[in-house]
Amino acid sequence: MADDELDAIRRQRMAELQAKHGNASDNQQGEEAKQRETDMRNSILAQVLDQSARARLSNLALVKPEKANAVENYLIQMARFGKLGGKISESGLIEILEKVSQQTEKKMTVTFNRRRVMDSDDEDDY
């Protein structure tokens, strides 16, 4: 009986180890896919932007990562469709940033709701 129990425990432990190893390989494949995508994006942006424009875009990514990501996606789409003629300079990137800012600009309005307080002093006649 001890051998049967020992075999059952060994099989259970082996299944646990295989499950852990399988999950680790899935995570590793996901990380590798993310790394390949990041490398591809960087290579496309290196082909499309000159040094000063890349520096400006990386500075923007530090401050506003969502806006930088939107600009990167826009540049990658333009490059894939062949709508970019040569490398984009810093001034060209600034124009693109202005366009993206205008499209994503949020208009805010401030309204004041003042309370109407009944003041007993108005009614008193001294």
Structure report:
May function in the process of apoptosis. GO terms for molecular function: DNA binding. Belongs to the PDCD5 family. Residues 18-39 are annotated as: Disordered. This is Programmed cell death protein 5. This protein has 126 residues and is mostly helical. The chain is 75% helix and 0% strand. The chain contains 5 helices and no strands. The chain has a single domain (2-104), classed as PDCD5, DNA-binding domain (Helicase, Ruva Protein, domain 3, Orthogonal Bundle), CATH 1.10.8. Helix 1 (2-48) packs across helix 3, helix 2 (51-63) runs antiparallel to helix 3 (65-80) and helix 2 (51-63) packs parallel to helix 4.
The CATH class, by name, is Mainly Alpha
Number of helical segments?
5
Shape: flat
First-residue to last-residue Cα separation:
105 Å
Please, what is the CATH homologous superfamily?
PDCD5, DNA-binding domain
Mean pLDDT: 83
Poorly predicted segments: none
Order of helices and strands: HHHHH
Q: Based on helices, strands and strand pairing, what is the structural class?
A: mainly alpha
- Radius of gyration over alpha carbons? 30 Å
> How much β-strand is present in the residues?
under 5%
Number of domains: 1
The total strand number stands at 0
CATH structural fold name: Helicase, Ruva Protein, domain 3
- Largest sheet features: none
